[in-house]
């Protein structure tokens, strides 16, 4: 399948796909993030997230939402390139762009079976946890690979080039 076929412009376009997966008995896992400079920490996290179910959906912040959240110098990589990189991973089944500051509306619409974030989050602080738990789903945290973050990579690049 071409990577572009795994990228969805909105939750409304992705919803029928998720319904088909669930009808077939697949457990749908959802996570989200900026994934600005994809690194080992991202790969490890996403691979572990997929192991929590049968299908992995990644909610990807749009460029505009990243600018609001992280400042005008971000993102480094434009959204279509970030989406294609994520979609190229065999353990990612769908990538859906969202422009809100949080994925709450996306989670309310898609109602995944499992919601996951890194273990730098407490479950009670994960956006959408209450929604997923109320529908009988689960919320899981995944241990992050130490020493890998987009911010630290950017800082290292800037330090080297000063």
From TrEMBL:
Catalyzed reactions per annotation: D-glycero-beta-D-manno-heptose 1-phosphate + ATP + H(+) = ADP-D-glycero-beta-D-manno-heptose + diphosphate
Record flagged with keyword Lipoprotein: no
GO molecular function, one term: ATP binding
Keywords: ATP-binding, Carbohydrate metabolism, Nucleotide-binding, Nucleotidyltransferase, Transferase
EC number(s) given by UniProt: 2.7.7.70
Cytidyltransferase-like domain span: 30-125
BP GO terms, sorted: carbohydrate metabolic process
Pfam families cross-referenced by the UniProt entry: CTP_transf_like
UniProt-listed PANTHER family: BIFUNCTIONAL PROTEIN HLDE (PTHR43793:SF2), FAD SYNTHASE (PTHR43793)
Protein name as annotated: D-glycero-beta-D-manno-heptose 1-phosphate adenylyltransferase
Naturally occurring in which organism (per UniProt): Microscilla marina ATCC 23134
